[in-house]
Amino acid sequence: MGKVFEAIDDATRRFIEAQRMFFVATAPRADDGHVNVSPKGIEGTFAILAPRRVAYLDFVGSGVETIAHLKENGRVTLMFTAFEGSPKTVRLYGRGRAVLRDDPAFGEAAAPFSPGPSARAVIVVDVDRVAHSCGYGVPLYTFEGERTQLAAWAERKGPEGIRAYAREKNARSIDGLEGV
Fold it and tell me: How far is CA 86 from its chain centroid?
């Protein structure tokens, strides 16, 4: 079942858009650096912009690994896997960049989304390889609903509280790379 494509075709687009979550993997250049994998999946936070370009909203959190790794080397892989229906996994390999909230380009980058107060960046990925695999080993799960904690946390913090949290928690990656 493994197939490789140069771009996102219509069938791959439909598959990706049907998934409720995806995973983002990045790594620093250093051999002793930590590989990072982050789950993503808030509805309306991922967009296919072109057959070889995608973007997603990145939210303030306890870490800043993806942004730090992208600043250092740009390498990124996004993985979508079916937890319902036919088994399938799609990986998008490419080079990414973070358009931070204070960047003048943020408004344009965030146009496909409703960023909300806790969005710290839009991650834009230029895709150079699209790979399908079977997903036979992925278990079946049923979607129960969206979590509400992030929005509630952001509301309690307020804009200045979110900025202060990001300055404290997101200045450096766990490997000491520059964050936000």
Answer: 23
Domain ranges of the chain: 3-169
Could you count the other beta carbons within 10 Å of the beta carbon of residue 73?
15
Whose structure tokens read 């800043």? 64
Positive or negative CA dihedral for 102, 107, 112, 113?
A: positive
Give the amino acid at 90: V
- What is the per-residue pLDDT across 45-85, written as a single tens digit (0 to 9) for each? 999 999 999 999 999 998 999 999 999 999 999 999 999 99
What is the C-alpha separation between 142 and 140, in angstroms, rounded?
7
Contact between 81 and 135 under an 8 Å Cβ cutoff? The reply is yes
pTM: 0.96
Domain 3-169 sits in CATH at 2.30.110.10
Structure tokens at 173: 């990656």
Q: Considering the chain, what is the average pLDDT of its residues?
A: 96
